[in-house]
Amino acid sequence: MNRTGPLRDVRRLILVACLALAAVGLFATRGHLVGLIPHWLARLHLQEASAAGSGIPIPPKLPDGRQRAFPTAEGFGAGAKGGRGGRVIFVTTTADRGVGSLRACIGAEGPRTCIFRTSGTITLNFRSLVVLHPYLTIAGETAPGDGIAIRNGPRQIRPSIEVVTHDVIIRHLRLRPGPHAIKACCSGALGFYGKEATDIIVDHVSASWGSDETIDSEGATNVTFQWGFVTEPLLDGGPSKHDRARNMLMTMGGNISVHHTLFAFGKFRNPQFQMRDPGGVADVVNNVLYSPIWDYVISFSDRWTRVRANVIGNYKIAGRSEKDDHLVYLFRQGDHGFSLFLSDNLDETYRPDESVGDDQVIAEEWRNYLVSSPFDVANVRASPPRQAYDDVLATAGATRPKRDAVDRRMVEAVRARSGSLLKSNPEAVGGWPTLAAAPPPPDRDQDGMPDAWETAKGLNPADPRDGAADRDGDGWTNLEEYLHELAGDGVGMHSARSADVPAN
Predict the structure, then answer these.
(1) For site-directed labelling of 26, which of 41, 169, 315, 488 has its Cα 20 to 30 A away?
(2) Residue 313 lies in a domain
(3) Domain range spanning residue 34?
(4) Cα separation of 317 and 291, whole Å?
């Protein structure tokens, strides 16, 4: 797809705008100048040519020539291959293990796509679902009925899903582990561990009720967490886990993108980054952050190396502070220092509108660490923070087949600025919703694509080989095209409407 012409025109327009703003900026205060010009440069850098509604689509290929994981994949993990071209494995039961279980699909070898033929909640009494073998797609959007949720049993003391390998795509799951009955480190929802954990993208996943961090990463690189909900971590999730309420910790790795995600009811780590890769970047874009009580919001630690980060277009809702409730907080733990690019963030306490300087979202003692231009990153289309607020609340989280009661409650609480931290028992706020099953669509050749869809697209519903083919030559297989359509790719990503989320 050739975007050279439109890109050139858009870049020229933005360049003119930058020059005009630079002239105006000469008469501005230092606080306004720091935020004004870099904002436009960041939009050019991060959006390329989507340019606030220009209508130019994201190309299937990344700048380095790799195929995008799916049409709306962005950030450092956007090149994950997943199960492209491999076999289809059906998930036909919500049992913890055995034939037809999600565990059986995850544990298989070779490129594979998990297609759900059932809905409901999977309770993990055995152990975590560990992704040991690469090239996996978990297509939660395929679940008929109300969708798939995963919870931990009381003695399951690890994250519900652990990824220790590369090229993994996870979409439209609800991960709600809950408290544990025995002493444990981290009974969370999702973890990425080790140097082999790279090229991973998690999209439209709703995670809540972790006992320490709900999302955790140690040593992983080239990871994207996008269009998700990370909400309601437990204050007291089990023995030795007290006064926690922590949402996401990304540590020891590098090149992490977290964008268009709701972080709600977590006092701390919303998210927190502790990079070890000296060349790595944390890219934090267009997230919405809410808690009635803040210890720290988005935070960074220089324990292992100098932190390099972009923090762009995020929206923080005011809460009651116990320690520091600026949007950005720094932990000086290793004397390596920080280089932070901040632009176009809104903080209802410290920067409620654009008349206040960009640097006000971080305490004055840290402002010497600010830099004037963004770090080179895998592109994420940024929008103004108020637009991001609307988009995230309207379309993020696990929305396929539909949002569950937990996510609907989260959206209502954020909009009303209501609610409180959850102590230890999810049943106190309604517990795990019942997710009804429904008959799956007929698929006589068992290639993962329904017969009716294949017929409508000119494919052969009796040919099991055409799922791995690429009829239109765009680099995505026919099966992937079906999954993209089912997931709503290209719908509601910008200028979101409530209608973009399926009816509940």
Answers:
(1) 315
(2) yes
(3) 4-47
(4) 7
